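COMPLEX REQUEST
Ligand: pyridoxal-5'-phosphate
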Amino acid sequence: MQQLAHRLERLGTETAFSVAQAAAAWKAKGNLVYPFHLGDINIPTAPNIVEAMNRAIADGYTGYCPGPGIPQLREALADDIGSRRGIEFSPENVVVMTGGKPVITKFLQAVMNPGQEVLYPNPGFPIYESQIEYLGGTAVPYRYVPTSTGFAIDLEQIRASITPNTVAIIYNDLQNPISAESTAAEREAIAQLAIEHDLWVLSDEAYFETRYEGVSSSITSIPGMAERTVILYTFSKKFAMTGSRLGCAVAPREIAQVLSTLNTNDESCTTHYVQWAGVEALRGPQDSVQHMLDILQTRRDTACELVNSIPGMHVAVPQSTFYLFPDVTEVMERMGYTAVGDFASDALYKTGVSFCTREHFGRRLPGEERQYIRLAYSGIEVPDIRDGLGRLR
Ligand code: PLP
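STATUS: Structure written out below.
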């Protein structure tokens, strides 16, 4: 019998998709399901963006295009991403990819050798841990601690985890799944660690503009950071384009060159006509972005109020992303659950409420005792949020 590659033993996945499968199977049997599990958006892509995509197909933009992206999109991305972060980028810094996810893999391919260590947030987007290990590196988690307003990075722990073998930090401000956002001091402290230890940084900015108040800041704008940071940018969340698969890396030129060659090896190019939709998204009217944020904010307020009305459950109101990460330890204890997975599957089969748990976002760390679930409100309307969380209560 032929064998598969050994490295597959180290490949993880985004297990949130298995929760989606269980929810779909339950729904197919005729049951009501309240989908709080996936960070997908049930608001359609704006008509001007869809029209631009259709027009590009009709105009024949269906062949190959340059590996790092069409010049018009690279230029629009350099302008938009640079101006919102106070940094000057040129199109040569931009490599267009099929969403934000491939930036994670290609960043690691570019900077990490097998056996080297990469720090990553845990709980965090599960693909970090999976790809570091798959590519032969060692995934070194850094953790968050609860505060009165949400969560903060444990700076002492991250500092103590750096060794001569550490090559990079993955940093996800406006964080999935816990919606944590760094203070300026925390961001500065992470930047100083990267500079002091000469580390690369992947700044995952997937939710940079999914925020309800104020403006986001990028670690890249801190002096000494632009030359060591790769930004992960995506159209998925800001423009409700998750299925169109469009994003990019913004990187120092030498790294951008490498990322571009990796892109050519893997994909030749990102779908040509989708890139024209990206140009329209960035250069066209922006009112649909605010409209979507208004909808999400109403959902957030409804969901937070209901979660906080459940005895023993509490969540701080996040200013960004579309996730709530309530502590359910007390509720589980009261109801006699020891495994959060059992709590989640009973919630689905008894109330129809489907959600991910802490276990879907990286391996549980030693000494970690609290139990959490993640409720995504990007794919569910306000009346269903009310019904679903009412049933959960
Ligand atoms: N980074 C974070 C933190 C995410 O939550 C996601 C998607 O949920 C991604 C990256 C990847 O997004 P996409 O590949 O759809 O652009």
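REMARKS: Residues 39, 99-101, 125, 172, 176, 204, 206, 234, 236, 242, 247 surround pyridoxal-5'-phosphate (CB under 6 Å). The two ends are 52 Å apart (CA to CA).
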